[in-house]
């Protein structure tokens, strides 16, 4: 497996090179006049004359052949220069850097309940096949999977904020936001809840957590519905295998049969789903961030797309693609750890 990991790591630059080439090729459908917006502050761009625009196009080589422009852009990417974002009104690299912590924080808090509860529900349903609890969990899954995320998000917002006033939208309340932006608040990890604890501000921690619960509940319900269905199907298949029946015939305790013999082997397809889920969470849950008015990569990308923010779209897509490539490598390695029968070498 070590040789396999080394080979995949050596292939990463080549794969990412192909990804950047595909991403950049999309810009060919844009004219030089549109692409110049990636290099110029929009406040200045609006005041430019046609002669100024032509001069800038010549300066940045936007009339050059694609390969020349591609390697120039790739050189900027390697230096961390991704252009100017019209949406964020700042360099794309800075915009992504500012928004990543908010998305990571949401992903971290959502990951544990989604994975633990989703797998537990799936295993419980499989072990109690055709019993009341199995039917109840399956109905729960059907309702959750059939309900669009924006609908469920609005329901959560209506019940827990409009009616009960518990979990407000946004990232922080105004009073907490002013504390976080003050000089006395030290941003160590840039994750609001963790930095609040490190600064000894339990009030800010609780406020940040209250703003996270609504999005987490929305994400969790949808992924629970999907993950438990995958887990249940996989567990039912494994529970019918010969080695499980043999273990039971030998008098092995049922808990040991379930958790030691069946559950581990049933996790292979679950790892695929869980890995894709983590990548999706880190990439940003667009609908959830928009509904709950949260700052994050998903909302930023959605705004960039609606405003045809060329530089921001390129930078965000590159960020997502890198996550996807690295995430798939981790999933492949987890396959071999969970099932020694898989030989990645």
Describe what you observe in this structure.
With 345 residues, this protein is mainly α. 74% of the residues lie in helices and 1% in strands. It is built from 16 helices and 2 strands. The protein has a two-stranded antiparallel sheet with strand order 1-2. Strand 1 and strand 2 (90-91) form a beta hairpin. Helix 6 runs antiparallel to helix 7 (132-146), helix 6 (92-127) runs antiparallel to helix 13 (254-283) and helix 7 crosses helix 11 (202-239). The longest helix has 38 residues, at 202-239. It starts with a helix and ends in a 7-residue tail after the last helix.
Quick gist of this model?
The protein has 16 helices and 2 strands.
Strand content: under 5%
Judging from the principal axes of the Cα atoms, what is the shape?
globular
Q: How is the biggest beta sheet arranged? A: 2 strands, antiparallel
Uncertain segments: none
Helical proportion?
Answer: over 70%
Over all CA atoms, what is the radius of gyration? 24 Å
Query: Termini distance?
Result: 5 Å
Structural class: mainly alpha
Number of helices: 16
Q: Order of strands in the sheet with the most strands?
A: 1-2
- Quantity of strands, as a count: 2
Q: List SSEs in N-to-C order.
A: HHHHHEEHHHHHHHHHHH
């Amino acid at each position: 497996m070590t040789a396999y990991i080394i080979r995949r790591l050596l292939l990463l630059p080549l794969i990412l090179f192909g990804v950047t080439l595909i991403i950049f090729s999309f810009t060919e459908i844009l004219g030089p006049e549109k692409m110049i917006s990636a290099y110029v502050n929009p406040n200045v761009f609006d005041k430019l004359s046609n002669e100024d625009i032509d001069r800038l196009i010549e300066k940045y080589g936007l009339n050059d052949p694609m390969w020349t422009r591609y390697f120039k852009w790739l050189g900027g990417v390697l230096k961390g220069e991704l252009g100017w974002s019209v949406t964020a009104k700042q360099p794309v690299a800075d915009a992504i850097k500012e928004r990543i912590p908010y998305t990571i924080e949401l992903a971290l808090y959502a990951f544990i309940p989604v994975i633990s509860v989703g797998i537990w529900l799936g295993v419980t349903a499989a072990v109690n096949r055709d019993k009341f609890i199995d039917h109840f969990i399956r109905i729960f899954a059907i309702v959750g999977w059939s309900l669009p995320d924006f609908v469920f998000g609005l329901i959560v917002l209506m019940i827990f904020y409009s009616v009960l006033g518990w979990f407000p939208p946004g990232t922080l309340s105004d009073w907490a936001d002013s504390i976080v932006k003050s000089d006395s608040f030290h941003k160590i990890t840039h994750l609001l809840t963790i930095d609040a604890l490190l600064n000894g501000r339990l009030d800010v921690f609780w406020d940040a957590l209250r703003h996270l619960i609504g999005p987490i509940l929305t994400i969790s319900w949808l992924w629970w519905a999907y993950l438990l269905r995958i887990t249940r199907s996989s567990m039912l298949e494994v529970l019918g295998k010969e080695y499980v029946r043999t273990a039971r015939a030998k008098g092995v305790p049922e808990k040991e049969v379930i958790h030691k013999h069946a559950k581990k082997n049933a996790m292979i397809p679950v790892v695929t789903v869980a890995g894709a889920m983590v990548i999706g969470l880190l990439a940003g849950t667009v609908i959830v961030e928009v509904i709950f008015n949260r700052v994050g990569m998903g909302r930023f990308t959605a705004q960039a797309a609606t405003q045809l923010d060329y530089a921001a779209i390129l930078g965000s897509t590159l960020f997502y693609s890198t996550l996807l490539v690295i995430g798939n490598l981790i999933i492949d390695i987890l396959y071999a750890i969970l099932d020694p029968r898989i030989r990645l070498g």
